[in-house]
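Summary of Year 1 activities. Much of the first year was spent building the evaluation harness for sequence design. The harness presents a backbone, in tokenized form, and records the residue chosen at every position. We chose the following record to illustrate the format because it has been used consistently in internal testing since the harness was completed.
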């Protein structure tokens, strides 16, 4: 279900989902830019992308897709790989940053829910639940090793140059490939596997 349909059918649920989703995506992109800046590439900082302002991160087509089809994307943070200290390590760290932040946000939301700081049937608890689920899905989705998703960049950091180049050549067609695979359901088992791994990691941290 797209967000537009949800807005029409259930405005309260729309805001309970849209707000955590918006800022989960923003923190994901901020993490990429912040780590890139720490690793020697100030491109995102110089372009004003280290900001909580949603307008700095929203992609018009990605936002439209999200509202209509329930699948969308933000404007990728620009990173100049040539500026990164230890290029391969830099690529892995920058690409992993967004996924790690999503996992941290999911953990924080579930930790607060587990502490029973809010009534289980209240608006705050509902928003925290959505925050956790959204961030787990975002992390799992971005782990898919198809360009331009983060998982492909992480994989490139480990591949020999020839294979890295071959994988990078898919990037201009990446979103079309992803949309097609999502449409036929081919990516569902992969996303489910990554969700299971992420939830297992968070579960171990919660119950230590």
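For this record, the design step produced the sequence shown next.
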């Amino acid at each position: 279900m797209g967000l537009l349909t949800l807005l029409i059918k259930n405005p309260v649920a729309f805001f309970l989902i849209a707000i955590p989703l918006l800022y989960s995506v923003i923190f994901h992109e901020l993490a990429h830019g912040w780590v890139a800046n720490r690793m020697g590439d100030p491109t995102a900082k110089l372009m004003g992308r280290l900001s909580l302002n949603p307008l700095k991160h929203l992609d018009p087509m990605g936002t439209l897709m999200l509202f209509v089809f329930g699948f969308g994307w933000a404007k990728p943070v620009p990173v100049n790989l040539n500026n990164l200290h230890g290029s391969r390590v830099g690529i892995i760290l920058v690409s992993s940053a967004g996924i790690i932040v999503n996992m941290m946000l999911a953990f924080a939301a579930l930790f607060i829910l587990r502490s029973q700081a809010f009534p289980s049937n209240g608006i705050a608890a509902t928003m925290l639940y959505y925050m956790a689920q959204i961030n787990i899905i975002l992390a799992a989705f971005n782990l898919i090793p198809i360009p331009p998703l983060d998982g492909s960049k992480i994989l490139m950091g480990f591949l020999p140059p020839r294979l890295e180049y071959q994988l990078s050549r898919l990037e201009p067609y990446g979103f079309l490939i992803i949309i097609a695979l999502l449409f036929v359901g081919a990516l569902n088992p992969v996303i489910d596997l990554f969700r299971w791994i992420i939830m297992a990691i968070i579960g171990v941290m919660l119950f230590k």
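The chain has a mean pLDDT of 89. Quantitative recovery figures across the full test set are reported in Table 2.
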